[in-house]
Amino acid sequence: MKAYDFDFPEDRYYMKNHVWLKPLNGEILVGITELGQSLSKGIVHIDLPEMGESIKKGDMLVAYETIKAVSQISVPFDAKVTSVNQKLWEDPNIINSDPYNEWIVKVEGKFDDNHVMKVEQAIKYFTELITKERERYADN
Questions:
Q1: Of the N and C termini of the chain, which has fewer Cβ atoms inside 10 Å?
Q2: CA distances from 29 to 86, 104, 130, 137 (A)
Q3: 22-37, pLDDT tens digit by residue?
Q4: DSSP strand pairing (27-32 vs 54-55)
């Protein structure tokens, strides 16, 4: 599905902070949406957690640096890191070109639907967000 020109695959859940979650074989893959990557203007550095690290709900899971700012990824549930995408140590830029196939970390944890959006909700939310931003900048 799309919000304007931005893809949102139907097999994931989304968060308002431009993070996607994909349950897979008892783990949850965590990544950045195409829209989030576009807004970031390119990820140039990423700090990944240690394998086995336990992260409390709302605490920083991953930090990443873009041309514009340093951002953090947190998740709305307690999580244990089961794997990190090792390719990101050498080339964090791969997220910029393939944000849905290049996950950042895999975690164990359990989330409920009250803290994440299904694709239909995400499309509605992000379409409204993009519309507001375009209107805001159209007036300048």
A1: C
A2: 14, 7, 25, 34
A3: 999 999 999 999 998 8
A4: unpaired
pLDDT (tens digit, 9 = 90+) per residue, 108-118? 999 888 889 99
**Of 47, 41, 104, 115, whose CA–CA distance to 78 is shortest?**
115
SS3 54: strand
Could you tell me the two tokens for 14? Answer: 């989304």
Backbone dihedral region of 114: left (phi > 0), alpha (psi from -120 to 50 degrees) or beta? Answer: alpha
| Domain CATH code at residue 52 | 2.40.50.100
What dihedral angle (degrees, nearest 10) is formed by the CA atoms of 32, 34, 35, 38? 100
Cβ atoms within 10 A of the Cβ of 79, count? Answer: 26
pTM value? 0.92
Residue 117: strand, helix, or coil = strand
Structure tokens at 61: 């899971």
What does the block give as tokens for 99? Answer: 């944000």
Domain count for the chain: 1
Runs of H (alpha helix) within 60-116: 87-90, 94-97
Residue with tokens 């989030």: 36
Q: Is residue 130 part of a domain?
A: no
